[in-house]
Amino acid sequence: MSTHAASQETNQSVWRGGVSPFNVSYGKLMMWIFLLSDAFTFSSLLIAYGTQRFSFSGNVDTPWPMPDMVFNHFPFIHHVHLPLFFVSLMTFILIFSSVTMVLAVEAGHRKSKSEVAKYMLMTILGGFAFLGCQAWEWTQFIGDGARLDFNKFSLTAEGMKYAEGLSLFDKYHWDEGFRMSGPAVFSALFFLVTGFHGFHVFSGVVLNIIIYLNVLKGTYEKRGHYEMVEKVGLYWHFVDLVWVFVFTFFYLI
Amino acid sequence: MSHNHTTDNETLMYETNQEMLYHGESHGTKEIWKIFGLLTIITIVDIFLYFIMPANMFRNITFIILGIVKSYLIVGYFMHMKHERLNLALSIIVPVLFVVGLIMGLLYEGDFWSSFN
Asked: Which of A81, A126, B32, B89 is deepest in the core (most CB within 10 A)?
């Protein structure tokens, strides 16, 4: 009888809602469920990209563009063949901002308000840096003639020969005869997937700013724990995770 | 917190005392920097392979495997999945594995379309 009373008092009864079967709070569990659904959304976009790309394999009339010859710009360095350099920089920015995020979570466990604030601010700055890079990348792509329904980055036979002779750090110059219009879905999916990812980064930055202001206000100090930092941290790492695959499929492969 | 339940001690406990379920403790920053180092090295290897390997299916598969290793490090350590209860980890990871079937099916389909394009 006394044990029954005790269990009612401490609410440890598993089947009456007193204990979380997952041993995490409601908010954190729901963040995981949301990320799962978001993972499906990004999977469907990337699978669409893969399907379209496979459907143009071996096609000589409308070949799929070589990513090498599309994304080979770097700020302030003109007409030098630098494929993958700028996007690698973006990758490192995002990885580093993920690290500052875990450091903020770790500082939260120690309830060190000033450190949480410092690392949150660094994460926010990393997010802005990434968004700036993406804006530059889009500007370059659109300036080169990409539209949602138009892509002129496919290489003609002549262009293919030129691209094969081109090596890293070479000066390059485009002859109009090197390019032709190819599958429009290439630029459409580039805008859609990187845009959707960029929108996630933007939302993440907004959430991080809200949490940062709450940290400064002392909301979590009053609450006694910094779990909110951990929850937005999950979202932020997810954005980094998606970028790993965008980087792999759009730029590396 | 609806006021219908404020008298129910159990529900009150469950809806308000969430920090009961939050047992964050610091494991130090050493592991974080180790994972950061690994992610950086794998990304550099990616870039390196991009320039030295010929563009073929073998290189693509290498990139995908390295991508999976990176996501394991991010989800396992940065998102703390390795330290969560197994039933939570399985609830999130197993549904994602079913996506592999969709990838296989649609890549096969795309390859089939290439005979019309």
From this structure: A126
Mutate: best of B1, B20, B22, B100, partner A, most A CBs <10 A:
B22
Write out residues 96-125 of A within 8 Å (CB-CB) of B. Answer: 96, 98-99, 101-103, 105-106, 108-110
Dist. CA A82–CA A171, nearest whole Å: 9
The answer to whether B34 and A240 have CB atoms below 8 angstroms apart is: no
Pick the more confident residue, B69 or B1: B69
Asked whether the beta carbons of residue B32 and residue A98 sit closer than 8 angstroms, the reply is no
Residue-wise pLDDT for A103-148, tens only, equals 999 999 999 999 999 999 999 999 999 999 999 999 999 998 899 9
Average pLDDT across chain A, whole number: 90
pLDDT grade, residue B1 (50/70/90)?
A: very low
Chain A's closest residue to B49, CA to CA, is A252
Query: What's residue B12's pLDDT?
Result: 46
Please give, one letter per residue, the 3-state secondary structure of B42-72.
Answer: HHHHHHHHHHHCCCCHHHHHHHHHHHHHHHH
Q: How far apart are CA B70 and CA A242, in angstroms?
A: 11
Cα A100 from Cα A118, distance rounded (Å):
9
Asked if B48 has any chain A CB less than 8 Å from its own CB, the reply is: no
Which CATH superfamily is A24-252 part of?
Cytochrome c oxidase, subunit III, four-helix bundle (1.20.120.80)
